Automatic annotation (TrEMBL):
It comes from the Bacteria. Residues 19-166 form the Activator of Hsp90 ATPase homologue 1/2-like C-terminal domain. This is SRPBCC domain-containing protein. Pfam families: AHSA1. Gene3D superfamilies: 3.30.530.20. SUPFAM superfamilies: Bet v1-like (SSF55961). Belongs to the AHA1 family. Signal peptide: none annotated.
Length: 169
């Protein structure tokens, strides 16, 4: 499925079925005690600095690599319909929560708008994430598009961690 985000750019759409009830999958995305167990690259230590689950609220976190490198990121929530949908912008940040450039690319978009939908099906949850740059320059949109395969691989790994975590809670 390919969607357009109003700028004629294709959004990235990833769908994954999880063997867990929708309420639990939604909580895994919205509660610090769950997020710290699975969000981020494999092998990284996750720390939730702040999570305010409301429109305009912020999820501010850090991730530390096995070699000690620390990165900060944040979500700014736009819309929350528990347990059906989450809409937020995602960006890299500094320790204070200010939006900063990605450490790996000076042309990575500052903000990615994400819409997550959670659909219950026979006790399982179909999660669909749609996302793409927002308020981005043409160069930033091109960088995002060039990294599409890497983004999909990253989410595949993160979703594997989520599936593993959900099987244990």
């Amino acid at each position: 499925m390919i969607e357009h985000n109003g700028t004629n750019e294709k959004e990235l759409v990833i769908t994954r079925m999880f063997d867990a009830p929708r309420e639990l999958v939604f909580k895994a995305w919205t509660e610090p005690d769950h997020l710290e167990h699975w969000w981020g690259p494999k092998g990284f230590k996750m720390n939730v600095s702040k999570l305010e689950l409301c429109p305009g609220g912020i999820f501010h976190y850090s991730q530390k690599s096995p070699d000690g490198h620390q990165m900060w990121g944040k979500f700014v929530y736009r819309d929350i319909v528990a347990p059906e949908r989450l809409v937020f912008t995602n960006s890299f940040s500094d320790e204070e929560g200010n939006t900063v450039r990605a450490p790996f690319s000076p042309t990575w978009p500052l903000e990615i708008l994400n819409t997550l939908t959670f659909a219950e099906h026979e006790g399982k949850t179909k999660l669909t994430i749609q996302g793409g740059p927002t308020n981005a320059t043409e160069e930033e949109r091109n960088t995002f598009e060039a990294m599409r395969d890497n983004i999909q691989q990253g989410f595949a790994g993160t979703f594997e961690q989520l599936a593993d975590y959900l099987s244990k809670v």
